Input
Amino acid sequence: QVQFAESGGGLVQPGGSLRLSCVLSGDFFSIYAMGWFRQAPGKQRELVASISGGGKTNYDDSVKGRFTISRDNAKNTVYLQMNSLKPEDTALYYCNADPSDVVGSPLEYGNWGQGTQVTVSS
Output
């Protein structure tokens, strides 16, 4: 069992920035890949950024160049720095982990945290 505790969301103006944090606890190992997902009302949950246990990152095209994922293994924490925010970034943001070096479809994971809400005003 792994628990996920997301935080850092809020209401920001277009062009603003936020830094999300996710603290993992329980049966988790630092070699696991980690990822950030988001889900807006009426849309599917989607993977926006991932980082392998070795630090290799990957981003969805919609956030490439604006978001940065990082991890601090000593704190069991993964971060998502979000800059140049757009109204279409508005969503509930979740994190998750995978024992492989690749974070897959959200349908593969049955355990989620509460998420943290990001709202970019229009």
Notes: The chain has a mean pLDDT of 96.
